[in-house]
Each structure stands twice: as structure tokens, then as C-alpha cells.
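ok here's the first one, seq then C-alpha cells
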Amino acid sequence: MFRVLLLVLGLLLPPMLLPGCLEASAFYHPRFQASPIPPGFEDVRFPTTDGLTLHGWFIPAVGRTPDAGPAPTVLHVHGNSGDIAAHLGNCRFLAAEGFNVFLFDYRGYGTSDRPRGTLRRDQMLADTEAALDFLAARNDVDHTRTAIFGYSLGAVLGLAAAADEPQVRAVVAFAGFSSWKGVAADHAGLLGRLLIGNGEDAADSVGRLGDRPLLVVHGTRDGIVPYRHAGLLLDAASRAGVRAELCTVEGANHLTLGGNPEVRGRVAGFLRRELDTE
């Protein structure tokens, strides 16, 4: 299906419009709707640097008393489809582990403002950085203990944001692809590699994390982002001297990865250790 889509668009679109439209059609599948706000969540709006307003949910850490001070916080950067309600199950558990959790919708998703023109990865990265800026302005967030937890496309954008934002202390990358051309080639061969543009590859972002740690989580039966991408991210970390660890989930596919209790325990333990909450 991915191959057919690229071929059809490649034949129909003018060359100047081809890269952006191909990327938007192949990679981004937003759901435009308002979802009910779960009890105890704070419904928020925040600005982007280019004048749009995005929507998100802030989930306070469970059981934290006022005298305990601001809580460590995890920014969840979700995948390429749906909206925040569809991805809530991947990150909500962290609130019960003592972390604030913030998840948001990119422009064009949920009830965030629509993009001006075709969705692009640089815009979605800017949205992720705007979410970090929103957290940096809150008094109930410990600004010295912020992490990013990205899933699929969100792992790629989260790594790019972390590479640019030193406030991020640690990164969890679930089922992320190492390069845009690489994952396009997984589904459409040479055609995919030729028609998808360069830029903001996760393998490059990993190399810019410096002394900040990375946890890579990937299922061995992932048919959307093949397991080989986990190895490529670990290799990139090793070459750059970045401290990284791999959590391989035998038999897990792209969609079931986040619901595994053992994986959740591994993520929570990694974040407690790296954000100094143990």
C-alpha cells in the first residue's frame, strides 16, 4: 500500500510539491476531533513560535503532596495517527509512578490548530519544542528533571527535540525508525528511498545527546517499523559515546508494545534512575 501510494502521488504531483505531499500522505494520519477530558487531567492550550495554538493534557503525578515540591515530568510525543486520546494508554501509567505526564497533539491533530499548508516534519518538531517550552514555564514541573518518551514517529521527533534542548535529561524511544528514507525503503524499496526527503533522522539525533541516556524499546514482530531500526539506533549511540540500552520485546508488534506490563516497569525504572527519583 505504501509503495502504491508513493507511485500514484509521484505520477500526479508537480515536482516542486512532490516531497512534502508524499511525506504528509505517507507518514501523517491525524484524527480531527475533540475527546472527553479524563477526570483529574488539566486541559491546556499553548502557542507555537509560528503563531498556532496546540492542545494538550497535563496529568499531575499521583499522590504527590504540595510539600514535596515540583515533580519530575515526562513529555509524551505520540505516533503518526489519531489524537492524544488514542495514545493515552501508552503513557498514563507514569503518573502513578510519580511523574507528571504531558501529552499534546501536533498541528492538524485533535483540536490543535490546522497547519498552514501541508504537514511537514520541521513543523511537527517545532510543535514538540513548543510543548517543552510550555513545561519550562510551569511552577509544578521540576525543570531539572524532564524526560521525553516518544512512540514511533514521536520517538523520532522526541529525539530531535532532545538533541536541541539540554533541559531534557533522558529519552525513551519506543519503536522509532532510524531514518525517514530507511523506513520508507522498508515499505517501498528504492522508490521510497528516492521519494522521501532527508533531515531529522533519529540516528543523527542520537549522536547529539551527549551524556544524556537513551532507552530503546522495540518489538521483534514490528511490521510497521522493523526491529532492525533498534539496532541502528544503538549503533549510532555507540559511535557517539552515548549511554544507551535496548529493551527487546519478543513477539511484540508495533501496536501492542506499550501495553506490556514488564516493559512499563522497565520504562518507569529507567526514568526513576535517570531523573533521580529512586
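and now the second one, same deal
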Amino acid sequence: MKQIIKSKEPKSLTNYRASITKTDLKSLKKYEDSPKNVLDDLRKALLEEQGYICCYCMQRVDFRYTKIEHFKSRSGFREKQLDYNNLFISCLGGEGSSPTKQFCDTKKGDRELNYINLLTDIESKIEYKKDGYIYSNDDNINNELNDILNLNYLVSKNNRKETLRSLYSEFKKIGWSNHSLKENIKKYQNKNSKGKYRPYCQMIVYFLTKKLKQKGVTI
């Protein structure tokens, strides 16, 4: 999980929101009734903002296979359904599967996250195990990771495990020098030349930073 820095919202969204009344905004149907160009511009902006990774599990996402996530649900906060700071991009999260196989926004549904805040340095409160397990030492955050987002669903957990395994295989070839660790931390902290973060980037940063600390090096 990675902190998301919000950028400027699409102009089409700004104009559309200004064109409707507060009464319309509170209608649950209004979001779905938004013009296609507004929704397309919004999806594109959110993807670019997040570097084409899911706001929760950090897997790669693209334009077609995504959901526009309302952090504060539309059912409970109708006035926020066109608030850009409340909107994120999520993967499909097992949409159409049984509840036990759903994750991210699909699993979350209309439930609220009261301790996980994507706009803060949430990454400082998240840790990982080598088997791909994601957790927090904060019990409240830990409960939301598992009970609301289901981020330790077997498929997600194994994807993180495989990503970490590939990283360790790479480092066995190039060596665990301080220089290699620092260079790769920078690589995973930043978007590539196509404006994309690498999948599960923050997990990789976590382990590489931990490796440096074990060597007595601080960043």
C-alpha cells in the first residue's frame, strides 16, 4: 500500500460538477449518469496519478479492467461522489466471485475504512513478510487490511510472494551492495519512463530498505 498524492482533477469533471445542483449531486444515480467523456477523463487521470497500480493491493491495472473507487462510499456520503479527493483507481478485486475470493474495493463495498487513509503516509504503518503476507502493528489497521480489504487472500498474497522471489533472484546475480540497494529503492519509489510504478513497488521498497538497515545504513 502506497501513499497517493492527488494531482489536479480533469477539467471536464470540474465543469460537470459545476453544472449540476447539490440536489442532483446527492442522487445515487448521478454518478452513473455522468457523461462518458467525464468518466473516461477521470479514469485516465486517476490511472496516471497512481502510476497504473491499484490503490490498495498495488497490482498492475489498466484502463479497461479497473473500478473507480469512492473511498467514502456513495451510499453514506453522496455529496462526495464527484469529489476528486475521494476518488481512486482500484483493480476489479475478484468481481463476480464469492465474497471469500474478493478483495480491494470489491470486497470493501460500502464499508468504511476508518484507520487506513490513502492520502497520508500509510506506507510507514504497513509491513510485509517474505511469504507475501501484509500486516500492520496497529491492530485497527491490521483488521481493515484483512476484514474489509481481504489483502491476504491467497492469490494476492502469492503474487506478492512471487514478486519478492523474483527480486531476490535478481539480487543474487547483481549482489547486495549498498549501491545496488539504493539504486533499486529509487527505481521502485519512482515511476518509469512510461509513467508507471512497478507492481507491488512499496513492498519492494520495504524489503530493500530493511536490508540496508540491517547493514547499518540509513537512507
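notes on #2: The first helix runs from residue 11 to 19. The radius of gyration is 19 Å.
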